[in-house]
Specification:
Blueprint: H1 2-18, H2 21-52
Helix pairs in contact: 1-2
Length: 53
């Protein structure tokens, strides 16, 4: 999932450089959402790993 965050971040940067503001904002928003989802899942996996181990 972190890979998709990086992909959308790169798309946002390229679109911003080329002047496509709407596309850049959309891709940056998607990247931000995916990053936070990844972060939440990572913390949950850390907590569940400590409980079992």
């Amino acid at each position: 999932m972190l890979k998709w965050t990086v992909v959308f971040l790169i798309i946002a940067i390229i679109a911003g450089v080329l002047g496509f503001g709407g596309v850049a904002a959309g891709a940056a928003g998607i990247a931000k959402i995916l990053f936070f989802v990844f972060l939440v899942l990572f913390v949950i996996s850390l907590i569940s790993g400590r409980v079992r181990g």
